[in-house]
Each structure stands twice: as C-alpha cells, then as structure tokens.
Amino acid sequence: AQTVTQSQPEMSVQEAETVTLSCTYDTSESDYYLFWYKQPPSRQMILVIRQEAYKQQNATENRFSVNFQKAAKSFSLKISDSQLGDAAMYFCAYRCPTGANSKLTFGKGITLSVRP
Amino acid sequence: NAGVTQTPKFQVLKTGQSMTLQCAQDMNHNSMYWYRQDPGMGLRLIYYSASEGTTDKGEVPNGYNVSRLNKREFSLRLESAAPSQTSVYFCASSELDISYEQYFGPGTRLTVT
C-alpha cells in the first residue's frame, strides 16, 4: 500500500523568510501525482501545488515551489517570502494511479506557524 | 458555482443515534469521496464512489454506509454513532483522471457523546 510520511509535526518561520516542509512517500508505481494541500483555521482544504511524476521539472506556483526527487521518493514544499497568511496545516498527498481506484493518500500533516 | 457543499456544519449526537451527512457538488465530477480527519492522523478515506452507481470501501469504512444518490450527491450515514466517530468529516469530488485535483467541502464537525 502507498504511504505518505511527514515526519515534522510542527515548524515555525519568520515572516519574509523561506521555509521547507518535508514529505516522503512509498510506491511501486512509476506514474502518479503528488499534491500539497493547505488547511487554514477555516478548515477548508486548498490545493497549493501539484507535481506529475513523469515530469522532471519541479512545479512552481508563485511563492510556492517543490523539490521533487523521484528516486529518493521525496517531495518537499518550499515557501519563499513567508506571509502571515501562510500559517496553516499543510498536507502532502499522493494520488494512486489505478483508474477507478484513484484516491488520495494523505500524510499526517505539518502545522506551520509564521512569526511576525 | 458553489463547488462542494456539505450539511450540516456542526452536529452533536448521543451514542447510538443515527444521522446522515449530506454532500453535493456542482462541477459535474464523476468521483466523490468521504474522509475523516482526526488530530495527528491526517485525512483518512472512509468510502468513495468512482462514478454514479458505484461505491467502494476506503481505509476506515467500519460503522459507516454511503449512498451515491445521483451524479451530484453522495451521502454518508452513521447508523449507530459511537464516541470513536467524533471527527471532522470532509466530502470531496474530482474527475477520474489522476491529474485532476480533488475539491473539498467545508467539513462537518461531529461530536458523539
């Protein structure tokens, strides 16, 4: 079974600085998708960024970028120029590629706090 | 578009009571999912429906039933609530293609006393 591991339960960053959130996963598949979701105090799950496993280029969305290391099965999220609104819980997720059984497997999440 | 809507937002039940959580999406997605979120556990899949007319168990299905009423609606039923089912419940929808993200509802906070 696929597993997603987020080993750091909490992290803190100073406003305007950069922080990296770690994620590793385990799969025997070669084609899959990886996601980072943000959950602010409102509880709403918001997609931050997605990465296709077959693409070597790391995905980027404004201040958010990933470091995808397929061989190491590592998928970290870098947040640049951190803002107070980035404070939230962040979940790494893997999407199983097998057609009708295509569901997300989540890590346990990491709570990010941003210091003003 | 409202996206994914869930009702109710909050609910308190006594042990043994039953209730149904409602979920609807207006994005014409084929697949719908129910997750529960517990502290330190992330989100765990309860049941999913890959398409209208089909449902399958996820990681933690015990104590729950689901109904895919039509393409838009996917309900989750607790027949006899237990304190272990105290959690936040999320419904989500997406297309079958794995490149598509899952869109989540706002969640239901359920407390079973």
What attributes does this structure have?
heterodimer; A: 116 residues; mainly beta; 6-stranded mixed β-sheet; globular; B: 113 residues; 4-stranded antiparallel β-sheet; 51% strand
Structure in words:
The complex is a heterodimer of chains A (116) and B (113). With 116 residues, chain A is an all-beta fold. Chain A is 0% helix and 51% strand. The N and C termini of chain A lie far apart (41 Å). Chain B is mainly β and 113 residues long. Chain B is 0% helix and 51% strand. Chain B has strands spanning 4-7, 10-13, 19-25, 31-38, 42-49, 56-57, 64-68, 74-78, 87-94, 103-104, 108-112. In chain B, strand 4 (31-38) and strand 5 form a beta hairpin. In chain B, 33% of the residues are buried.
Task: Give a brief description.
The complex is a heterodimer of chains A (116) and B (113). Chain A is built from no helices and twelve strands.
Task: Walk me through the topology.
The complex is a heterodimer of chains A (116) and B (113).
Chain A: E1 3-5, E2 10-14, E3 19-21, E4 24-26, E5 33-39, E6 46-52, E7 60-61, E8 64-69, E9 74-79, E10 88-95, E11 104-106, E12 110-115
Parallel strand pairs in A: 2-12
Antiparallel strand pairs in A: 1-4, 3-9, 5-6, 5-10, 7-8, 8-9, 10-11, 10-12
Chain B: E1 4-7, E2 10-13, E3 19-25, E4 31-38, E5 42-49, E6 56-57, E7 64-68, E8 74-78, E9 87-94, E10 103-104, E11 108-112
Parallel strand pairs in B: 2-11
Antiparallel strand pairs in B: 1-3, 3-8, 4-5, 4-9, 5-6, 7-8, 9-10, 9-11
- The number of helical segments of chain B is 0
Low-confidence stretches of chain B: none
Mean pLDDT of chain B: 93
Let me know the number of strands of chain B.
11
Arithmetic mean of pLDDT of chain A: 91
H/E element order of chain A: EEEEEEEEEEEE
